[in-house]
Amino acid sequence: xxxxxxxPITLEVLWNRLISTVNEQAAALMHASFTTVxxxxxxxxxxxxxxxxxxxxxxxxxxxxxxxxxxxCVRHFLREYPMDTxxxxxxxxxxxxxxASGHYHDLTVVTPVFHQGRAVGLFANTCHxxxxxxxIFGADASSVFEEGLAIPIMKLVDRGRVNEDLIKIIRAxxxxxxxxxxxxxxxxxxxxxxxxKLIEMxxxxxxxxxxxxxxxxxxxxxxxxxxxxxxxxxxTYRHQIEVDGFDEPIVVKLTITVAGDCMVADYSGTSPQxxxxxxxxxxxxxxxTTYPIxxxxxxxxxxxxxxxxxxxxxxxxxxxxxxxRPAPVGARHILGxxxxxxxxxxxxxxxxxxxxxxxxxGLWNTQFDGIDERGEHFCYVFFSxxxxxxxxxxxxxxxxxxxxxxHGVPAEIVENVSPIFMECRxxxxxxxxxxxxxxxxxxxxxxxVRGGHPAQHSPMYDRIHFPAKGFAGGLPGAKGRIYxxxxxVPHAKTKYVLRPDQKVTLELPGGGGFYLPEDxxxxxxxxxxxxxxxxxxxxxELYRVALDPETLELNLQETEKLRSAARGGQ
Amino acid sequence: MSGxxxxxxxxxxxxxxxxxxxxxxxxxxxxxxxxxSDSPAQAVIEVMREMLERDDIAAREVGxxxxxxxxxxxxxxxxxxxxxxxxxxxxxxxxxxxxxxMRYDIYDIFLELPKPMVRRxxxxxxxxxxxxHGRVLIPLTHEEAERAVDQxxxxxxxxxxxxLLHSFRNPTHERMLRDLILxxxxxxxxxxxxxxxxEVREYERTSTTVANAYTMPVGRRxxxxxxxxxAELGLGGRLYIMLSTGGITAPQTAAEHPIRLLxxxxxxxxxxxxxxxxxxxxxxxxxFDMGGTTAxxxxxxxxxxxxxxxxxxxxxxxxxxxxxxxxxxxxIEMIEIGAGGGSIATIGPxxxxxxxxxxxxxxxxxxxxxxxxxxxxxxxxxxxxGYLNANFFLGGEIKLDPELARATLANKLARPLNLTVDRxxxxxHEVVNENMANAARIHLVEKGLDPRRFSLVAxxxxxxxxxxxxxxxxRLETVIVPxxxxxxxxxxxxxxxxxxxxxRSYIVRLEEVLWxxxxxxxxxxxxxxxxxxxxxxVAPEDVQFMRSADMRYVxxxxxxxxxxxxxxxxxxxxxxxRCAFEKQYQSIYQRLCPEIPMESVNWxxxxxxPRPEIGEAKWWSPGVSLALALKGERRAYLPAEGTYxxxxxxxxxxxxxxxxxxxxxxxxxxxxxxVINGPGQAQVDEFGNVVVRLE
Lengths: 570, 695
Description:
The complex is a heterodimer. By secondary structure, chain A is an alpha+beta fold.
């Protein structure tokens, strides 16, 4: 069937059904998962693909780094195992960083679906594993070989039989086999749930293949994406951001060129790859570049192959956003999460009302391993978020992940499944960048490890040196900090040993503000002071709002004076 | 129970409905009035008094009155609850605001998160700490408790919530704080998390506890007024309150746990659907309640509506999952989507036809109402398709104008999409049905249920109009349309058993269960359940217990509900537990996980009184013959043929018992229209249900 054989009603109906199918796949995955990374944090993606490997629909949960990389990597699977060589009951697997989502910890499982004896499409999902062997999830490896077990594209299930040899190898390589193998079973099951639903849909609508539907979905999406790009003035828009890096700052240079209905994002001029595990593979760079573009340009259209086609992402080989093997890539998310700041910075020159200020960006990944209270090896990771950047019409979000789509994990869960103990988890006063719209606040966590044994802490933290910048006159958010209770400041990306009696404090960065702080509604400043989100000093010195230190009553006259003095002083 | 009247009272957002049933004769009388937002209790008393007078019923002959309300839900949606203060473990007052650190829509960079019900300045910290086993790491001293409570009360709050870390393992500290508050202010509304919801995850538990505190003062006042008012009317029996689970409880108990009432109205609708299923020998039904702005669906398996332990209240976007505040309460699981008769059809950004969630509501309503509504709505499409009678909508109360409907569909949909008006109208009908079927499908899949074992029970104004097509999409064989679609919820109240739910967290691997401990957990819960039921007037021999547990493989974080046997547990129970779990697990996820041990997280108990006997409610007197019920014929769209044809139209009120109708056909009643726009056999059963068998 050609794309035109679906009228706007049938297509709407089938498309919705396809999206509901992948949502069912994702729900099955999260419910059956053995790790808080997948089910509580939602570090996963799930999607359905046509026979050519084009992504047709993705689950509405998940995180862009997985969704958009999965979209690319299914094609690599098909190159290795062409569709006509696959059999019913097969499932394939890989964690190759360059082909899939950028580091060994993410496994991708791809399952072909058969209808009336013929392969019609594929389901895929990507999940972060609790462990993958090697030197523990972290930023400090010096080659990818140290970072764990490599699983090239291969069969995980062969005509219904699980590849026991592979399972044995995995079991022998990882520190915590149970949750890892449990999650692999969940990944297989989720694709099967999706496949079953797809077949039902095809039966209901008498479809013998997905070709026509696929063409129609991609064509519509692509057209709509192109129209949205065409509405943006042609031109070249540049932005540059600086990121802590491992030891040396990294410069990300981005040039976005809009020409008609095409957009090119070019990272030429960006720092070269480094010797430590913060390098980004092209797939991942592509994923976190197309994602913020879509957020700005065309957020309401479902994400699929058609959303990517009008956008070209260029990252010269050997630069830190397109690193070459065997570069270490373990903590590639840190830099990957900064790309949205570069994209919004560039787009702010042309669509300033559709971007947000810089936020904490890189998710703060906290990995611990050691011996727990029962004397067993434990390995645990959780992700935490600082503040997001302010928006041109409202404040940023405190302690909320962006651009990552993950969720936090409750302290009670962390303490139940690991010996990690949280002494506090609270918002940081004055952490949000002042502006007419305030950046989101970061959070402070104080951690120790119970059980009387030293534990290895693998920090993956950024914005220790470079704070989130504000936009259009907004001020930067607070920088991040890591320190021990004796005042020692560990390196933010290198493993170290935390003694049983030691506490580590993490202060996550805040988001940048939007517009001048002295234009913020004084009443909103007062509310923030009452709630302890902003100090009296910051209110006076940066927002230029006068409050009675005792009653916190707003002094409008005094405020007006402070503000006109500030404006006059400029 | 003969001669003892039973009363169901439903306060909805718009209407207050009252149903009085005489179980002896089966007579049902119905009263309706606009809900009064100022004095909802007073409005109920007044409509009751009027009905008793009008129908000559002595108040003392009323055996029991059961009531449900959306009042608590609306307090949260409209943020009109009490000024509430919160006490938390030191270091964790922001749990309520940090939440799960997530965005519920990954592409919307302008989204808003739901605002916490307690602002930060009213969240105070207390020095104390338990570990994850409930062991005290930092004791709560009397001085510290005193300091915190004084500070909280000095804020001038009207209600207090207490949620300490791991308190569900050991409630001592929370109780200390509560007792101190009550010692200082007797009768002060206090909610402590270990009693409101004893489950792990501090954000969800705090959110739930705070919601309870936030609604408690209004809940107490309102339920007290209602209880007194009923007593003043001279009611013979007691007033009971329906919970979100479909169980009922005494007003005093409900007043302490107002959040358990959140979904009581829809729960009653589900009970009514279950009852209809029972009448027609269909224990597995999907209820389908489609009104003006939304459609709700709920799954009833073996006569029992499926229940879950979470709910979201006060969403930023009504139909967007995750945009609300999590409330962990047992609730009949209801999926609500923005698809009703008033839902507006538009052309989406991709040039495809979209329906809802925006709705024209009742005012101005669909374009065909002729009240200035611009449409095009689902009702406009249904009218064009010949499914609705322009002169008999709401019994003729509203005249529908097909020309207005055609004009708006032509201008807004057909022309831009390059379709005929009829094709566009069918498209609106089809898209809305598909949305509904998708919602039900996900719901079924998550429970591992096969839709084909279910029948559809359709009610609400638009439910029967769409039921046949929705059933077809779900591959169901039977659609049942009960009588009295307009007051289904109020009627459902009469069907609720007295019930209380309890749960205790005790996370343990199955092979490590301390049987004595487990038995004592159940002994304690059963004693409490028994006491509450006896207090509510249930006879000791009628008390029943149902046990279940939330189980999973060790390391998983989502549990599945597994039924447990009664009696003493011992080592032999292990095998029963294991088998029950594996059976349930396989049905959901297809495969088991070899070599991984199983554990249980929460142990649950439902204590119930007897199911109410309501005899056979008679809503209508059956007609004489099918021929007399035939109103005529009307041109209606038949999708299988892709064209219009003359279809017979029947008057539901004149149908005799046993009447058989061959599809395609249309059956009209005051509040709704049953549309069979394809082949199928409909039969009127002795209860007045129209049962349609699809082919």
